[in-house]
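**User:**
If convenient, please work through this fold.
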Amino acid sequence: MIATSYRYIVRRAGVRSGHAIIEGTRIGVHDVVAMVRTGCSVDAVVASFPKLSRAQVYESLAYYEDHRDELEPLVAAQTAELGV
């Protein structure tokens, strides 16, 4: 069953092209997923984005799993920019 609500994930018109972001930030869920995919640990993501909590990072990963078709192109583009 796919979750329909998330505590920390929102969409805001005009922010990051309307893609899913972590509430209170401009950090896209796809940004977090791309970092993890390129080998960063959850702690490393939090260190890179000090405004994030571990719970927000884990929820971003859960959101990705529930919305893979939507987010995969964004994650792929992000990791391609990093040369991964």
